Amino acid sequence: MKSFSSIRFSLLIPLLLLLGMASCVDPVPAPTPLDMVVPRGFPTNLNIPSDNPMTVEGVTLGKRLFEDPHLAGYLGSDPDSLMCCASCHDRAHNFDIGLDNPRFPNGAPRGRTGIPTHHNAMPLTNCVFNHEGYFWNGLISADNPNVSQRTIEDIVLMAITASDEMGSTEERTLAAIRADHTYPELFKQAFGTEDITIERIKKAIAQYVRSLVSCNSKFDRYLRGLEQLTPQELHGYVLFTTEEGADCFHCHGSDGSPLFTTHLFYNNGLDAAFTDEHDRSMVTGNPMDRGAYRAPSLRNVAVSAPYMHDGRYKTLDEVLIFYNEGLQASPYVSPLMHKLNEGGRHLTPAELNDLKAFLLTLTDEEFLRK
């Protein structure tokens, strides 16, 4: 009969062997924190949720998913269902839709099934600095108690499932992404295991979107003392930043930051009557917000056509002409539109050319080519 000690020893041996085998398995390296270097002069308060920190591996995975036409759930049976974030948010067009997008004639966005979107697509540049909500009307916001969606992560799922966007389902998207055998290792590197979930897809794409920082335009290099603006560009800058000139700065940079937007919402005198049910008043319930929309950033504005919430203007010249002579009065127009009663700024043709020359210095070629 074996003694108790010998039985205990015999049981201990396989346990030690198991522990030894486990110790030989290499642990999964932790994701590499992404060093988000804030460009000089930019806000330091970044909109990064604590439960989705930025990592090198997460951004890499997010970029792959953002550009993967199978994100909508395409499994090989319906070629028309190929659609992803990059279908409407093209890097060359400042992550906007562009006028030469073969899928969307004249830059009019439609969902995978052909249903038009409520509004024109918005650029995804410098979203990490935005704390005022997303979309033209600011519907998706941490401060909006009327919606459950609050973050970029939530927008990713909305884009996948909304009938006027990818029109897919969580199950279909998961099936398509899981069918690609290169993804498990990427998810493992980004999140520690090979599990592919909607939550991880949302987080990875949101990380990538937050990494899209444009900060190296000619104007940026001018501010850093690395390049000079021409006399025409400098005069356009003066027009941009003065009430006596074009008076653009109140809505596109009154805080002195280089974002070229306040991220706030204004009725800019685009219309005298309003039929859009998805303007800012839909979010706030305030009737004085009729016809108000977010002031988009003017960074890379030269490549961000079509313009306005409904994409009505196809060229930057059309936009400048509107502000110069096409303002329409209503009780809802922002008081910052100082020349409303005169219909616009009424700059001379030479001044308009100078203002446009300045706006062209906001194009970040390096960012658009990455």
Describe, in plain words, how this protein is organized in 3D.
By secondary structure, this protein is mainly alpha-helical. It is 34% helix and 1% strand. The protein has a two-stranded antiparallel ribbon. Helix 9 crosses helix 12.
Strand order of the biggest β-sheet = 1-2
Overall, the morphology is globular
Q: H/E series, N to C? A: HHHHHHHHHEHEHHH
Percent of residues in helices comes to 25-40%
Terminal-residue CA separation: 75 Å
Helix tally?
13
Nutshell version of this structure?
The protein is mostly helical and 370 residues long. 34% of the residues lie in helices and 1% in strands.
SSE arrangement:
Layout: H1 4-23, H2 56-66, H3 85-88, H4 152-161, H5 170-178, H6 183-191, H7 198-210, H8 218-223, H9 231-240, E1 265-266, H10 280-284, E2 293-294, H11 316-325, H12 349-360, H13 365-369
Antiparallel strand pairs: 1-2
Helix pairs in contact: 2-6, 2-7, 4-7, 9-12
Characteristic key phrases:
370 residues, mainly alpha, two-stranded antiparallel ribbon, 2 strands, disordered N terminus
